[in-house]
Design goal:
Blueprint: E1 2-3, E2 9-10, E3 27-30, E4 36-38, E5 46-52, H1 57-73, E6 78-84, E7 89-90, E8 97-98
Parallel strand pairs: 1-6, 5-6
Antiparallel strand pairs: 2-3, 3-4, 7-8
């Protein structure tokens, strides 16, 4: 499922504050189709949330891998949500500043 780049609404969360087994920070995402998904809606589900952009080479390499993984494990309840960051900014994987 693809989400638009301006769709994340949440309070601040920092990686060192996140722990396996604890609740995800409160956030609300809006799909390209206009549907809203909140972290509260996903409670109890296994979800991979990935941030990517078409201009980010490592991200483009990762997307087909995640897509195949999601398809293989969909029957087990896995959901993969892709959050698009298609604006000129640093690549979330490499940290390098890239332009489209």
């Amino acid at each position: 499922m693809l989400l638009s780049g301006d769709a994340l609404l949440s309070s601040h969360a920092y990686a060192n504050e996140l722990h396996v087994g604890s609740r995800a920070p409160r956030a609300s995402l809006v799909t390209l189709g206009g549907d809203r998904i909140s972290t509260e809606d996903l409670l109890g589900q296994v979800v991979i949330l990935t941030f990517w952009a078409t201009w980010c080479v490592p991200c483009r390499d990762e997307l087909p891998l995640l897509s195949r993984y999601a398809a293989r494990h969909a029957d087990e309840g896995l959901r993969v949500l892709g959050f698009s960051l298609d604006t000129p900014m640093s690549c979330p994987r490499s940290g390098k500043s890239l332009s489209p």
